[in-house]
Specification:
The chain crosses the membrane at residues 21-42, 54-74, 86-109, 115-136, 143-167, 173-190, 202-221, 227-244, 264-286, 292-313, 325-346, 352-372, 393-414, 434-452. It is found in: Cell membrane. Helices cover 76% and strands 0% of the residues. The relative contact order is 0.13. By secondary structure, it is mainly alpha-helical. The chain contains 17 helices and no strands.
Length: 464
């Protein structure tokens, strides 16, 4: 294929991709808002079906599925046609939704339906990301990554609202929301590129082994136990051996020794470490320090999500203007200010704390675009799918570990004995000290950005 033919093919796929991405984004939104909606009402569902003690499975098991399929779909995008994967995902999303609606009287059917929903919805997200980094030019890539991140937070806000509204008459109708995806199938069939890897065998064994490893990570942080830890170590060793000795592993030695990409993974891990803990700590503060109702807490958190959505929408143009490195520096500073401000002013009013939460959520949100932009640039185009998948896995794993650390810190009574700047002892001091731990993680992220700045600065933004 001549260079001109390659340019022509890129432009054809670029034009089709820009038509398909909005439809993919809507499908992703419809599926993702279910996460927050069901996280809000899972106890109500368990109670209504006589399974109160098992209700949390409706939240935890789909979360485990999500952690696995994020990696799996991203990897498969390097081998399988995006169009075929998209159709599979939309069909699975609709099938899971209908199964949950018509099987709403049985707890286990509801649980299976939620897992199918999650698995189907994530296909749209993974395809969106991979098509963005493969088929768009450099400036468009940053913009669309920012929009994707914004839609994630928009889905969180809408999901919380939908969960509270629909449960006022019957929670089973939540299942029908993603069925609206059926209207976007014609657009997706027409415009999603039908391109697969030619002449390259899929490493099914290696991918399956890595999927088991990813699943065990998620399981360990949801249901910790010694046998899970042993299985996790064994699967990790088996996967390392497969990379070293296997025939044509899907992650080659060159991939895992890519210094720039591995550096970006480290930065991502630190930046997102306390991502899952940012919201739960405000429930603790609102209920135990200020004694305010959950509705008020939810309203304040909705404001935080709206800020995150707006920041995500504009993060692409910001990265194109400031460059990846400067954007990451600003992000880390915003996180430090937000966390440290929350620690210092923990007793000065819940609305002031909401302001500081808006600051650090802005920092976390704006981080997404430059990290994924840099990660995709560090790899060859034909490996962008598995690169995106592993970034997704690391982001979720880091946040899960951070959530476990947060839980340990919050359960440690010694942290309540006192804190800096005269914060009263007790729950105020305890939550303030947790915020200081979050600020320390953000400071470490800032240090890493300066130390590893060569891996973040690149042609796509910083040299334009």
């Amino acid at each position: 294929m001549t260079e001109q033919q390659q340019v022509d093919d890129f432009e054809i796929n670029r034009a089709k991709t820009k038509k398909a991405l909005p439809a993919l984004l809507v499908v992703f939104l419809l599926g993702t808002l279910m996460l927050q909606a069901f996280n809000l009402v899972f106890q109500n569902i368990g109670d209504s079906l006589g399974m109160s003690s098992s209700a949390s499975l409706i939240s935890t098991l789909p979360g485990i599925v999500l952690g696995v399929v994020c990696m799996l779909y991203g990897t498969l995008c390097d081998f399988v046609s995006p169009k075929r994967m998209t159709l599979f995902g939309v069909i699975a999303l609709i099938a899971g939704s209908l199964l949950g609606f018509f099987g709403a009287s049985n707890f286990w059917i509801v649980l299976v339906a939620r897992m199918i929903q999650v698995a189907g919805a994530q296909v749209a997200g993974s395809i969106f990301l991979v098509m963005t980094v493969k088929y768009l030019n450099e400036r468009e890539k940053a913009v669309y990554l920012g929009v994707f991140n914004a839609v994630y937070y928009l889905a969180a806000a809408v999901g919380v609202f939908a969960g509270g509204f629909i449960t006022s008459f019957d929670w089973k109708y939540l299942f029908l929301v993603p069925v609206l995806s059926v209207f976007f199938i014609p657009v997706l069939i027409k415009n999603t590129p039908d391109i697969g890897a030619k002449g390259e065998k899929i490493d099914f064994f290696g991918i399956a082994l890595f999927a088991v490893f990813a699943a065990l990570i998620a399981i360990y942080f949801s249901f910790p136990g010694p046998w899970v830890l042993v299985a996790l170590v064994v699967s990790a060793l088996a996967f390392v051996l497969w990379i070293a000795k296997g025939k044509n592993p899907f992650l080659s030695k060159k991939f895992v020794t890519n210094k720039a990409y591995m550096t970006i993974i480290l930065i991502l891990f630190v930046f997102y470490f306390f991502n899952f803990a940012c919201v739960p700590i405000y429930n603790v503060i609102g209920e135990q320090i200020y004694d305010i109702p959950l509705t008020t807490i939810s309203l304040c958190l909705t404001i935080v999500y709206v800020v995150a959505t707006l920041v995500g929408m504009f993060s692409g143009p910001v990265v194109n203007w400031m460059g990846r490195l400067n954007t990451m520096i600003v992000a880390a500073i915003l996180m430090i200010v937000g966390f440290a401000g929350s620690a210092i002013f923990i007793s000065k009013g819940f609305y002031l704390l909401t302001f500081f939460s808006c600051i650090f959520i802005a920092g976390i949100t704006i981080t997404y675009t430059p990290i994924y932009d840099a990660g995709s640039e560090a790899l060859p185009v034909e490996e962008n799918g598995r690169g995106i998948g592993i970034l997704d896995l690391v982001m979720n794993t880091s946040a899960s570990i951070g959530m476990a650390v947060y839980s340990v810190l919050l359960a440690n009574p010694s942290l309540g004995k006192g804190s800096l700047f005269g914060v009263p002892s007790g729950i105020e001091a305890q939550t303030a000290n947790v915020f200081w731990a979050m600020a320390a993680a953000a400071l470490l992220a800032l240090i890493l950005v300066f130390v590893c700045r060569k891996s973040l600065a690149g042609k796509s933004t910083d040299e334009q």
